[in-house]
Here is the input.
Amino acid sequence: MKKLFDVFYDIYGDDGWYEERVTIRAKDREDAEMIVSGMEHHSVYPIVIFAVDELGEVA
Here is the structure.
């Protein structure tokens, strides 16, 4: 069963950095990190993950 995770990360761009937070469904914390890291393929800027908080199971 998948769970909800709140992932807090920074994106570093040419004009500085900014914080982002996204809530995603993943099977575990490591999977959640991999999903967010994979988002770099859609952006030219690197993503640095700071926190992955488990929010609970998805019914």
Notes: The two ends are 8 Å apart (CA to CA). Strands lie at 3-13, 16-26, 47-57.
